[in-house]
Amino acid sequence: MSTFDVKKIRKDFPILNQKVHGQPLVYFDNGATTQKPKVVIDTICELYSEHNSNVHRGVHYLSEELTKMYEMAREKIKDYLNAQHSHEIIFTAGTTASINSLAYSFGEEYIKKDDEIIVSEMEHHSNIVPWQIIADRKGAKLRIIPMNDKGELLIDEYKKLINSKTKIVAIVHTSNSLGTINPVKEMVAMAHKKNIPVLIDGTQAIQHGKIDVQDIDCDFYAFSGHKIYGPNGIGVLYGKEDWLKKLPPYQGGGDMIDRVTFEKTTYADLPFKFEAGTPNYIGAIGLGVALDYLNSIGLENIQEYEKKLLDYATTKLTAIDGLKLYGTADNKICIFSFLLDNIHAYDVGMSLDRMGVAVRIGHHCTHPLWDHYKIDGSVRASLVFYNTIEEIDILCESVKKIQKMFGV
Amino acid sequence: MTIKEIQAEIINEVKGFDNWMDKNSYLIKLGKEAPSISPEHKTEKNIIRGCQVTTWFYSELKDGKVFYEIDSMSMMIKGIISLLIRILSGQKPEDIKTADLYFIDKIDLSEDFSPLRANSLFKLVNQMKSEAAFYEAEMKKGK
After folding, report:
1. Measured between CA atoms, how close is A125 to chain B, in angstroms?
2. Nearest to A285 by CA among A225, A227, A204, A211
3. Domains of chain B, first to last
4. Is residue A285 part of a domain?
5. pLDDT confidence of B113, banded at 50, 70, 90?
6. Domain at A146, CATH number
7. What is the pLDDT of residues A92-139, one digit of tens each?
């Protein structure tokens, strides 16, 4: 921890040093998107200024140079995830694109009428709807792992859901609404006992600590670049080599082919089979730089510091009369979903904004999760390693002011 | 009172507030005091689509004047709604349709509640005006 200096780190994120509505910005909407360190912003500018050229196309200097940088970014992501091969890293537009493409490819090949797909009650809509679409198309159905009121999946119930009709399990690593960290390694092992593959939606897990896909042993892992301090519009679908070789491509087009004739097309090798068209190479390289940045700070340092924020914020928020916290799992990240007395989340969010505190309000794309609690949604404060104890104090003081303003 | 006169009255009431919190407290107070929409009109059909907060809207024409019942789960929005109702409810359709609601800018509602501008406030004003235009057309047909 001695190497972790949050004041110094905050200087790396230019956007944090500003006032909104005359108040210092407290950015607690990191679950929606994270801010970018200067090194990522500068890289994007530099790439367009000095290196831009299409990848895998040209014989000229710029194209070759950028292709190398693009493929180096793939290597960095492979290392970050501890994947076995870099061709197991497929660049996509984000988690949603990753899951949709997998649901399509996998579903077309392996899902039939009356088959079952297991998801959980706490999934983001992007890990429900793509599976629902394929289930509807094939006459299959979704089975749902329930959770308890703390926001923890009921593993015994999950075990009961796995049967011979189960074709795939698609579960979230860390809940975007509640912060729960699910026991994915254990859940993968359970599915693998029946040879069922598992996709993990790592959107809210990837930025909070080390992810080792070989240790988890998941078959697929999806995440978005913008949630891990990288650019928007870039994401990753990791897939085990065996699976990616077997699956058909989701999209056809340039760069993903070996040979095209009007009679038949043969596809390129991995990973290009799944990367039709000009890829977002600027985004991919920017993502690689974001991962370098995180590694330079140290994932263990980040984890240790965020745990401090988690403990402090939990103590402070739960001490506020009338504040109800949703998501109290034993193992969770710095996400705090709450409601305040009988004040609508919208009123709380709007008032916090005026006090400089950026939070998200609403259902956070998890309708079924809020149905569990029989509410419409929450106010969500999501913190990361550039947030501070002082900012948590500002949130708590602002919440108390709002209560006063609303006469509670 | 005319639409203009009521707006002048509201601007006068609000001009004393020199900070956002006082103005917000005033709107919350208005929201809390405002009547709820009657149960028979608090229906799925009457929910304004596309608003971040569930908001119900009902209007009717009585004796050549338009009367509104609008409700919201947000007290801040309901406070603003109560101002709009105070200005427009009970006015003639043609006056509502052409009303210049300058009080919104005068009391900095669109600045203080910028997300509302896109999501609720203007949508709501547009709906109030388009209902008035509908009643005006109906009245003309009736003639």
Report:
1. 18
2. A225
3. 3-142 (3.90.1010.10)
4. yes
5. low
6. 3.40.640.10
7. 999 999 999 999 999 999 999 999 999 999 999 999 999 999 999 999
Burial class of residue A65, CB neighbours in 10 A (0-12, 13-18, 19+):
middle
Same domain, A233 and A333: no
Quick check: B28 and A21 CB within 8 A? no
Please name the residue of chain A whose CA is at the shortest distance from the CA of residue B72.
A344
On the 0-12 / 13-18 / 19+ scale of CB atoms within 10 A, B63 is exposed
A362 contact residues in B (CB cutoff 8 A): 52
Task: Give the active site residue among A45, A218, A334, A365.
Answer: A365
Report the CATH number at residue A357.
3.90.1150.10
Total beta-carbon pairs less than 8 A apart between chain A and chain B:
39
A351 touches chain B (CB under 8 A): yes
* Chain A: residue whose CA lies nearest to B74: A344
pLDDT digits (tens, 9 = 90+) for A311-339: 999 999 999 999 999 999 999 999 999 99
Residue that is last in its domain, among A254, A270, A295: A295
In a domain, A36, yes or no: no
* A307 and chain B in contact, CB less than 8 A: no
Chain segment A241-295, per-residue pLDDT in tens: 999 999 999 999 988 988 999 999 999 999 999 999 999 999 999 999 999 999 9
Q: What is the per-residue pLDDT across A153-182, written as a single tens digit (0 to 9) for each?
A: 999 999 999 999 999 999 999 999 999 999
Whether residue A344 has pLDDT greater than 70: yes
Q: A350, B113: Cβ pair inside 8 Å? A: yes
Task: For residue range B19-36, list pLDDT tens digits in order.
Answer: 888 888 999 999 999 999
- Tell which residue, A247, A291, A293, A286, has the closest CA to residue A81: A291
8 Å CB contact between B75 and B97: no
Q: Is the pLDDT of residue B115 over 80?
A: no
Instruction: Indicate the number of domains in chain A.
Output: 2
What is the ipTM score, two decimals? 0.87
CB B21 within 8 A of CB A401: yes
Of B32, B73, B115, the CB nearest to A350: B115
Interface test with A, best of B17, B26, B27, B28 (most A CBs within 10 A): B28
Distance CA A40, CA A288 (A): 9
Query: Are A77 and A121 in a shared domain?
Result: yes
B114 burial type by CB count under 10 A (0-12 exposed, 13-18 middle, 19+ buried): middle
B25 close contact with A: CB closer than 8 A: yes
Q: Check CB contact under 8 Å for B74 and A346.
A: yes
**Nearest C-alpha in A relative to B29:** A406
Range of the structural domain that residue A246 is part of: 42-295
Lowest mean pLDDT among A44-58, A216-230, A303-317, A375-389: A44-58
Q: Both A227 and A275 in a single domain?
A: yes
The residues facing A224 across adjacent strands are A235
What residues of B are in contact with residue A21 (Cβ under 8 Å)?
A: 20
Which residues in chain A have their CB less than 8 angstroms from residue B111's CB?
none
Predicted pLDDT at A57:
76
pLDDT for position B116: 54
- Residue A274 · residue A284 · CB < 8 Å: no
Question: Do the Cβ atoms of B74 and A347 come within 8 Å?
Answer: yes
Active site residue A365: yes
pLDDT given at position A1: 46
The residue out of A260, A275, A295 marking a domain boundary is: A295
Measured CA to CA in angstroms, residue B42 lies from B31, B47, B72, B125 at distances of 17, 8, 10, 19
